[in-house]
Amino acid sequence: MQKYVLGIDLGTSAVKVSAVDHVGRLAAQAIRHYPLIQPKPGYNEQNPDDWVKGTEAAIHYLMKNSQLQPESIQGLSYSGQMHGLVLLDRNYQPLRSAILWNDTRTTQQCHEIMDKMGQSFIKITHNQPLAGFTLPKIMWVQENQPKLWQRVAYICQPKDYVRLKMTDQLNVDYSDATGTIMLNMRTQQWDPKILKTFHISRSMCPPLVDSTSYVGNVSEACAKLTGLSTKAKVFAGAADNAAGAVGSGIIKPGMMSTSLGTSGVVLKYEPDKNVNYQGQLQCEDGAIPKTYYSMGVTLSAGESLRWFRNTFLKHEPMKDLDKLAMKAPVGSNRLLFTPYLVGERAPYADTRIRGSFIGVDATDNVGDFVRAVMEGVGFSFRDLANIYRKRGTHVKSVVAIGGGSRSPLWPQIEADMLNTNVYKLINEQGPGIGAAMIAAVGLGWFPDFQKCAKKFVHFGEVYRPRYNNVKIYNHLYPVYHQIYKQTALLNHQLF
Ligand SMILES: Nc1ncnc2c1ncn2[C@@H]1O[C@H](COP(=O)(O)OP(=O)(O)O)[C@@H](O)[C@H]1O
Ligand SMILES: O=C(CO)[C@@H](O)[C@H](O)COP(=O)(O)O
């Protein structure tokens, strides 16, 4: 019997389940979307049970509509949207909707962290407290929902909640634990000083495990709902950017990727966990034990395009937006867009900045606007790549992952903006393959990720920078770069 693993990618827009065979061939895929709850500007939440139902429904569909036998799925693992706060009572039931990575309500709590712990906080976590991380969200709940906080028994990350409901076991892997900013990077333990300072009991924090750790089997209840076998082994999994990195072969020093998911990410494998970007970039544990990566995050990348479509072109499929944008000239007729729809994380940690269209002209058409949105994200990636370049990194090439890399246009915009080669993956958008690789290594199919990557990671098209486009973007970038400074005060006055 052929054998398979499942990679479950719990994204922000949807959960994507990929069945992959022992030589890395994608055998089947299923996707289920779930809503984002935005009750107020800057607030971004999701219902944890929507993730669970979506995952179970996607697996059920995949099992029903493919030829895969339940026993052939030997293992599964996860890639999860990072930093989300899931609060559980003592019966492991969610106490409120999850507060997500792109929720920007916690400016004040970030200041409180620095007031209480100062530079020692950065020394412990290797990160500046930023609004998207988990700790400030915990403090927001303590301050704003004290009665609910009294009932909290466990704190976990999004994919850990889904895994809990599939196995009855609660754990967190190191790559997601770093994203909480409660992990001590040196000891790789929950930091006692941080927990004490912010009144978090150690018992609330799940046990720490490696991404490849075997944490249990699919439970009987989950097997009934999904069509999986209870013999399927479950491995902890990783933060989506950590899983995306292994899924795109970013497993050696100097290698870089970009992700166009709901968020946008420029990511670099780091050989040294003590690398210091003065808080402008994040530093995290990787999916491979004792490996590290840094990244800069654009809060609304794919989300900017999704927002534009939902607001102005409701019934157009994404691929038709690509066609519209491809008809517009490079530089979108000098129409510029900044993607700060919910605030920004990098290079500006600013929860009160908002997006702009600059240079709107009476001759602009809808294609110019769509292209301007895609280019605005590209300019933001250039801002992030420049942080690396200023520190001497030669951005030789990047691997483009995430849903936006499916576009025939966006990777070319990236290549022209960054003036570097952009490689696409052949069969999946990155994090799902990374999750499948974690299961494959966990099962012992491969002795290490390097050997697994040789079979599982396949590069497809390469987009090379086009001289004339690069020239146009070189001309427009300094203008784009000024928009933040020129609009920050105006936006801050709106709050
Ligand atoms: N054909 C396409 N052209 C451009 N963007 C696309 C296309 N298909 C999907 N996307 C973008 O991909 C994003 C979703 O990517 P995905 O990696 O699935 O996100 P997440 O992991 O956050 O759920 C959407 O927000 C959308 O903007
Ligand atoms: O906050 C971060 C990384 O720090 C985001 O990258 C999230 O991890 C969400 O990822 P996507 O849903 O956009 O893939």
Structure commentary:
With 495 residues, this protein is α/β, with parallel strands linked by helices. Helices cover 38% and strands 21% of the residues. The strands form 7 sheets. Strands 1, 2, 3, 5, 13, 14 and 15 form a 7-stranded mixed sheet that branches. The protein has a 7-stranded mixed sheet with strand order 18-19-17-16-22-23-24, with helices on both faces. A hairpin with a 6-residue loop joins strand 18 and strand 19 (292-298). The protein binds adenosine-5'-diphosphate and 5-O-phosphono-D-xylulose. Residues 11-14, 261-262, 302-303, 305-306, 318-319, 322, 402-404, 406-407, 410, 429 line the site of adenosine-5'-diphosphate. Adenosine-5'-diphosphate is lined by residues 11-14, 261-262, 302-303, 305-306, 318-319, 322, 402-404, 406-407, 410, 429. It comes from Acetilactobacillus jinshanensis. One of its GO terms (molecular function) is ATP binding.
Task: Give the topology.
Elements: E1 4-10, E2 14-21, E3 26-33, E4 45-46, H1 48-65, E5 73-80, E6 86-88, E7 98-99, H2 107-117, H3 119-125, H4 134-144, H5 146-150, E8 154-156, H6 158-167, E9 172-173, H7 174-178, E10 183-184, E11 189-190, H8 192-197, E12 208-209, E13 214-217, H9 220-226, E14 233-235, E15 238-239, H10 240-247, E16 256-260, E17 264-270, E18 282-285, E19 292-298, H11 302-312, H12 318-327, E20 336-338, E21 356-358, H13 366-390, E22 397-401, H14 410-418, E23 421-425, H15 431-442, H16 449-456, E24 459-463, H17 467-493
Parallel strand pairs: 1-5, 5-14, 5-15, 9-12, 16-22, 22-23
Antiparallel strand pairs: 1-2, 2-3, 4-7, 6-8, 10-11, 13-14, 16-17, 17-19, 18-19, 20-21, 23-24
Helix pairs in contact: 1-6, 2-4, 10-15, 11-13, 12-13, 13-14, 13-17, 15-16
The structure holds adenosine-5'-diphosphate (ADP) and 5-O-phosphono-D-xylulose.
